[in-house]
Structures are given as structure tokens and as C-alpha cells.
Amino acid sequence: MAAPDRDETLRAALVRGLSRRRTGLGVTAGPGAIWIVLLLIAPLAFMTAVSFASIDSVTFDIVWEPTVNNYRDLVVGGTSEYSLGPLVYKATAFEKAVLLSYAIATVATVLCLVFAFPLAYVMARLDDRAFKIVIYLVLLPFFTMYLVRAYSWRLMFGQSGVLNQVLGAVGIGPVAAFEFGVPAVIVGLTHAYFPYMLITLYASLDGLDFSLIEAARDLGASRVDVIRDHIIPLTLPGIVGGSLFVFVPSVGAFITPQILGQGKVQMIGILIEQRAIGEATNAATASAASMAVVFSIVVAMFLVFRYVDLDELGGV
Amino acid sequence: MATETGEPAEQTSQEYAGRFRNHQRIERLLGKGLYAFAALMLVFLWLPLLIIIFLSFAQSPNLLPFDGLTLSNYQGIAGEPGLRSSVVASFSIATLSAIVATTLGVLASFALTRYRFPLREVYRTFGIIPMVVPGVILGVGLRFYFLTVGLNPSFLATVLTHSLYGLPFVLLIVSARLYTFDESLEEAARDLGADPLTTFRDITFPVIAPAVGAGFLFAWVRSFEDYIRALFVSGINTDPLTQWMFGKITKASAENLNVLNAVSTLVVLAIAVGLAIAMNYGNVTGYVAGTNADDDE
Amino acid sequence: MSHNNELTDDTDRTTGGRLPGSRSVSRRAYLAGAGAAATLASAGCMGEGGGGTPTINVITWNDFAQDPVVESVEENVDATVEITSSTSSTEMFQQMNQSADFDIAVPNNNLVPRFLNAELIEPVDTDTVGNYGDIYQKFRDFVGQQFTQDGNAYGVPIRWGWYGYAYDTREVPDHEPSYNIMFEDDYVDTDLDGEVIMYDEAAKTMPVAALYLAEEEDDPSYREALTENDRMTFTEDQIQSMRDLLIEQKPSLEGYISSDTTFIQQFQQGNFLVGHSGRNEVIRLQENQDADWVEFVVPQEGAMAWYETAVVSQDSDNPEVAWEVVNEYIAPTTGAELARQGKSPSCNPNVADELEESEAELYGRIDPERFEQFIPFKDIDPDVQEPYNAAWEEVKA
Question: Which residue, A58, A302, B211, C353, shows the most beta carbons closer than 10 Å to its own?
């Protein structure tokens, strides 16, 4: 008899509590807030602190004497020369890694956009049955482990990869572009994040009123006009959102350059991993590089979000 | 395309008709081109996966010279040391972290949609950030932090990390559902004397349940396929499937690649079956594409 | 002034031709700690308990986890051996540093000073490690130079091996073995552009640059920086020259490679013609794949050598039994099993007596005079650590 009673009172207390606004808010927002503070804000704050400290070379303990050396070394003392006319800039390994990452991510994003748009457009116009088949074919790679997809390109590329073997069999090659390196990394990233772009674009095209487009065409608007004046403006949130979904993870990519770069493509993900647990392990320099990258992404996002709301990025 | 030079047309009307026909032909060609390009993109998505599947039945992990077909790669899986424990580890980590992420995410979605409070925007932004921070940085940051507070890289550390990583997916999907949910239904129930728990159970939950399920699924998949975060926090005694696979890739002997191709094929197969079931059962597309608002009640 | 930490990592992912399966825990270790959460506690709890046969927990390379090795140890020592497989000496250090779970670790020699500095390990119990006196004098000298304090040695060399380069004899003609082949495009009469592989590890590749420069610039100080002290004591200028050399070399490389098995696979596939590599990789390639077209050579400039070194934790509950296990690793029977697993010779020449003739040819005894050409891997001097790390990052950038 006692048990149900206690349940009753517990339930009553819960109901009373939840009916009060303050308690209700605490119960719903609280756990998430605790998680965010303990597992996101605290680590980032800690990493920020470490990035201004240094590491003892014997004990490997953190030496809490404030220094900006870790940041200074990110941008000072480089030897790789870049010249623009009379201007010569000597870039550090970190700067080169950032530049390379942003360049690779940009190319991958553009490729995804160009490749995904026509497919998304077709998908939006398919009848139900055909759509179901195509979306299945698209979602399957989407849900397939990222690692498996990156690995699949490892088999394709390389001097003796599938691509060059097939070319060799018909008497061409080996083609240098199909060896491991930057092109392979770009293809790997494009393939990895293609479904994100596709699905985001599809979501925005799906809401598009195609009768509007046909009307415009009937009125004599050229294809280019229609794309420029109607399709792009209407799908802009999808384009920006999809680009973000490709660009941001591509900048921080690790697996793809590691598997497809043959040690020659040092993107920032690899540089940070090396500093964090690799040969030259150093928590302070790893933290500084990480925070600098976070900062650069925040700035990039800030610029983008002047045009797009985070909410519109929807379910992906 | 320059094949349309027919007879020199003299009359304007004929010319017009000819141009119209040409226009239609170009139109059709472009339309076909569009469909061909779309098909090509599907090939691009699938080709490398098909190669893996094909090679998983091949004697040698090199396409050429082709040495013949075999099932021995699949037989090799059974005796593969560490594979079973990796699969078990990945399933446990994904399930536990998705449960935590879903619980926290659903509650937080309620807070965001049912209450106005200071820092609400900040709360939401930080709830989404774990999805946006590059994995290598989240992993490194949590590794240093965990080590400092005395939690060594381990199973627990991985579950905590992935529960944070999964949170945004639940939050986005469930709060989107709650935004479009007609609050007056809840109010009506309350007016009729239902207490908050009853209202939740009878009115709210049935409506958001598919979204909660989708959020859980997303968090689960993200944890299951994560390599980079786990790399930093999983430690030596926990070896999720992705770590196991990565080891096979970096130590790419012929035997390793054979086993890896077979395991990868099984992963694709499992996902193919799971996805087919899910698509028959619920509106997967809607949740993935964020277009679930208007259907699926 | 900021103290940048840290030694370069060791021969890590590469030493000893480690078997595949990156961090796969051995079957034994797995059974001991099935559930992932349980594994955390297992090692510690099982240390003593039960009385009777003590359990010795070892964190080491996968070779040590193979059944023939474990069985051989357990036959000769009254102990149960639990192996946790690791693929990196740094990881072994971190594990031992973070928990008291392990009695023994077997890192590469260059990491031992780090264990010593962090006060994690015991001096060698020479009474128990009776086989210590049998190992090559050269290794005892190395121990004296690298990790002996107050007359006490802190580690026992187990197996060893060296790095030279391998080339494809079908394409590359006979030549005087020299690092020139990696840096000078006219050294042999074959177009090697895009056909050379280096290791994706500063610890292995920087010394190659130094040995090349020592000859090329006729400047023995590059070599002395490798040999004279317990650390690599390059000057900043030397580091910059090495960096510039490697940056210049990079465009003509096929790539950098970070694991032996990948090396073997890609070499066999014909991805490259000349590869900086460990000897055991090549032996594995020749043995398993019948690749008679592979030639492995020691460059006339000298070769870097690794030797893995067993250390015993200060926190071990059974240090004496632990040293008995270590002793067993360089005993003839167990030593022979280990040599077979890794295709790498034991530091104890007597182990060769237990090997088949064909095995002994590949990883048996060596004429002590040949040791003159070998230089042990060392960590970088802390004073130049920062520029050294930066230099490698720039090479890879």
C-alpha cells in the first residue's frame, strides 16, 4: 500500500512543480545547460587557458605562466615564401595549413553545389515512385559510415588504384591526377559531403512552385534568366545552408586527407592531431592552433549568418 | 548541336516554325541532359561503394589483375581479433550516448519552445555548436579537459563526448516539430483539467514521438560513425568499430583490405536494410530534409 | 621562455613490423575485460587477488600478445601474463603515467628517458634478469649512454632492427648504397621522380637528412649530433638545413608513409621504386610475398637502429616477477618466438641458437663489428625541440 501512495505524492509533487514556470524551466532547460557548461564551455575555456600556457619538457605538466608564444608561433617565423608582385610573405606551417584547408573546402563546396543542384532539381520534379527510388539511392550513401566512403576512394586512387588500373588496361596513364594528393582529397570530401548539400538543396527546391517557373518560361524568359531570377533567389537559404554543411566539416577534415593525402596534404585537422597526440605532442600549441581555427570559423559563420538564420538549417 | 542547318528558309513563318522546332529540340536535349547529369551523379555517389562491394568478393583487393571470386573474405571476419569487441563497443557507445542526447535534447527543446527566458538565444546557439565545431577540435579539447579533471580516455569519456555531439541533432529536429505544434491543443487539455504530465503523455508526446525517434536515430548514427572524436577520448581499452577500421586502412596489407572490404559491405548492407525498413515505416526523407512540418501526423 | 615539451615519438607505428590491427586488444586482454567499462577496472583488480599465481600486466606491441609468446613466458615463469596491445611508445608512456595498471611496458629505446624523468620506473634488478649479461655489449653501451642513472640501468633491450632503404631491382640498377638516391635525381640511371617514399615521422626522416648532409657538406657535426649524446643535439642552423633539404625533396616524393603494412602493400603494387624502410618490413615482404625483386641496403652513411626496451613500473605489486618476465623475453626460447613474430633479431645473440637456419639467416646473430654502422634513435634535445618540431611541420606543410 505504501508504494502507490508514495508514487502518488511523487507524481503530485512533480505535477505541482512542473506547473510552476520556474521549476518547469529548470527541469527542461537545466540538464542540457549542465551538459553544455560541463562538456562544451568548460573544455573550450580550458583549452583557451592552456593555449596561453606552456608545457614542461620533462614532466609534461602545464606551466601556468601566461604567454602568447603559442599564438605568435602560429604566424611568426615561417619560411614558405608567397610573393605577390613585390610583396613577399613568409608563411608558417600553420598558415599554410589554414590556407590549404580553406582552399580545399572551397573547391569541394563549389563542386558539391554544381553537382548536387541538377540532381536536387530533378528529384524535386520526380513522381512519387521514382522519387522514392532515387531518395533511397541518395540516402544510403548518406547514412553509410563516413569512414567507409573515404576508404572507398582510397581504393580508387593511387598509382595502382582502380582508376589508374582501368586506364592502364586501356593503355593510358598512369595519370598523375589520380594519384594520392590534393585532387584525391577534394574528390573524397566532395563525395563525403555531397549528400548533405543535395538534401539541403532538395528541401528548399521541394517548396518551389514549378508552375511559376513554367509561367516565366512561357513569357519568354530564357533558361539563364529563370535560374538567375527565380530559382536561385528562392533556394538561396538552401544554397547557403548546404554550402555550410559541406564547407565547415571540410575545413576541419582529418580522415580524408589522412587516407587520401599520402602524407603530403597537411590540412589543419592533421596538424592539430599531430600536436595533440602525434610525435610532437604539446597540449599548449595544439590548443592555440585549435582556438585560432575556431576563431576563424566563427568569423566566417558570422559573415554568413548575416544572411541566413541558424534555424533554417533544419534537420540535417 | 549544329545539326539544325536544314534548308535555307525564306518565309518568316517557316523560319519561325523552324526555330520553334529547334527550340523544342534543344529543350528536350537539355531536359535529357539534366536527367543524364543527375544519373551520372548517382553513379558518382555509388561507384566507389560498388567497387568495395565487388572487391569484397574478390581474391585480391586489387581490381587488376583479377584473381577470381571468393567468399573467404567473409569467412575471415569470424576469426578477426578485436572486431567483435569493436562492434559491441560501438553499439553500446552509440546507444548510451543517443539515449542521453535524446533525453537532454527533448527537454531542451521544450525549454526553447515553451518558455521565454534570458539567454534563450545563447542557449540555443550553444546547443547547436557541438555539431559545428570541427571534430578534431572537440576531441582534442575534451581530451585535455577530461585528463585534467581525472577522467582518462575511456568508454565513459566517449559516451559523454558523443552525448554532447548528438545533442544538436535532437534539439534541431524536435524543436522544429514543437514550433509547428499547435499549442492550443495543450492549452485545451489543461483547461479541461489535465495536469502537465497527462497533457504531455496524451497530447504532446504522440505528436512529437516521430521527431524524437528521428533525433535519436541521428544521434545514434553520428556516434556510430564517428572516428575523430573517439580517437582522442576512447583510450586504449575501448576500440570502436571506426578505430578498428581505420587501423585496417592504415595497415593496408592485402589480408587487411580483404577483411575491411567485407566488413564495409556488411555495413552498407545493414544500412540498406535498415533504411528500407525505416522508409516504409516513417517519413525519413522528411526528417533528413527538414520538410517534415506539413505531413506525417 | 616557453618550454616546449617533448621528445619526438619513437619508431612507433613502425617498429618491429607490428602486426595489423591497430589497437586491437589481444584475445586474452579482451576476455579479461569484456565489457568496455569493465576493462577500466580489470587490469588493476586482477593484479594481485587470488594469491597463488600473480598476474603481470604488460603494455606492449602486438607481437608480444601472440599465443606462442604468451605461452612460452607462462611455461617458464610462474605468472599469468596479460598483454594490452599498443601501437605507440608514446601511448605506453601515457598509459603508465596515467594509471598504475601496468607492471611492464616495452617502449622503444628513445622513450625510456621519458619514463625515467617522470619517475615511473624501477632500476633493473640484475640478479633476476640473468640474461642481461648475454646481450650484445653494444646494447649495454647504449643503455649506459641513454638511461643509466647513478650506475643503475633502467631498461632491458629486447629486440632490435635497423632502417635503410629498399628498392625495386627490376627498375633500379645496382649502385653504391647511399642516401644520395633519395635526394639526387642523377644518382642512379632511373627516373625516380615521384617514385620515392619517406617515413611520415620526424624521428625517422630527420636523421636521414642529417646523415646525408654530413657526407654532402663534409660536416661530421651532423653525425656527431646523432651519436655523441643521449639526445639528438642538432643546432638550429643544422635543423634549418635539414628542413630545407627535405622541403626541396618533397615535390619528387611519391609521398610519406606511416605504417609498415602500407609500405609493403604499396611497394608490391608498384606505387614507388625506392622506399626508406625498416629491414623487417622487407623481410616480411620477401618471405610472405616471394618478392625476390626487393633489395634492402644499409647506406654507406650509416643507418638508424631501434631497440625496444622493457621497463618495470615503480607501482608494480610484483616487481620481481615482472623482472622474471622481462628476463624471459630475452631468454632463448621466448626470444626466438618474439623474433619470429616481428621478423626482428633479439638483443641476445644466444636466441639465434633456437631459430631454424633459414630464420637465423634473416633475424639471427650479427657480427658485432657491423654495429659500427648503426646509430640508435634518440629523442631531440629539449633545447632545440621547438625549432625541430616546427621544421618538421614545415616540411609537411
Answer: B211
